[in-house]
Amino acid sequence: ALKNKQFKGTFNAVAPEPCRMSEFSKILAESLKRPNIFPVPAFILNFLLGDSSKLVLEGQKVKSIKLTNNFYKFKYPLLESAIYSVTKK
Predict the structure, then answer these.
(1) What is the pLDDT of residues 66-88, one digit of tens each?
(2) Which end of the chain lies in a sparser environment, N or C, as judged by fewer CB atoms within 10 Å?
(3) How much helix, strand and coil, in percent to the nearest 5, is found in the chain?
């Protein structure tokens, strides 16, 4: 995007396929060969993160539409392939 003049403005640099935190933690645990036993209780996140806990608990529906509309190709478009590319090195 820095080298291509077609890319103008602000872009959401997020993966093209959104996922829930439960899916993310499951795939991460599998890739690290660790158990994914239980979620962190909301009150702990509220205590640790304050108002920012809403980002984790409720999520945000952010999409990378401008990137894909400008023909950007993600190297790892799926969560599983992205996590495994980092954890298997």
Answers:
(1) 888 877 888 988 899 999 998 87
(2) C
(3) 45, 0, 55
Contact 9, 66 (CB under 8 A): yes
What's the Cα-to-Cα distance from 36 to each of 31, 50, 64, 88, rounded to whole Å? 11, 24, 29, 18
Question: Which residue matches tokens 């108002």?
Answer: 51
Q: What was the pLDDT predicted at 66?
A: 83
Q: Is the pLDDT of residue 59 over 90?
A: no
Question: What long-range pairs does 80-83 form, CB within 8 A, spacing at least 24?
Answer: 80/27, 80/31, 82/15, 83/27, 83/28, 83/31
CA distances from 46 to 20, 26, 54, 60, 67 (A): 18, 22, 8, 17, 33
